[in-house]
Specification:
Elements (H helix, E strand, L loop, with lengths): L3 H9 L4 E6 L6 E7 L2 E8 L1 H5 L1 H18 L5 H8 L13 H6 L1
Antiparallel strand pairs: 1-2, 2-3
Length: about 100
């Protein structure tokens, strides 16, 4: 049986204390990860993210990526695995804000 709360707990409990709390009546939950230094992550998770296994896995990967960046780790391999090896090239150049606003 699919249990998103257990999936979230299992994903992080080896390194953090995991707290899940109902934040709003619309079903949003707050995931809080803490360790000896205090709060490491707070993330609001919507019912749509929570109830879709693919979206929930993306949330978990996104949180792990944020933690890695905050801790100064190189994240190239993590990004490659998250995108299946397909990383779009970064655009360079100037952005014309007037053109964007007029669109």
């Amino acid at each position: 049986m699919y249990n998103p709360f257990q999936i979230l707990t299992d994903a992080f409990q080896a390194e953090y204390r995991v707290n899940l709390s109902l934040e709003r009546l619309d079903g949003n939950i707050m995931l809080t990860l803490t360790n000896e230094q205090g709060v490491a992550v707070r993330r609001m998770i919507s019912p749509a993210q929570r109830n879709d296994p693919v979206r929930l896995q993306r949330v978990i990967e996104s949180i792990r990526l944020g933690i890695a960046i905050e801790n100064g780790h190189k994240v190239g391999e993590m990004l490659t695995s998250m995108t299946g090896g397909h990383v779009s090239p970064v655009r360079t150049g100037r952005v014309n804000a007037a053109q964007i606003a007029g669109s």
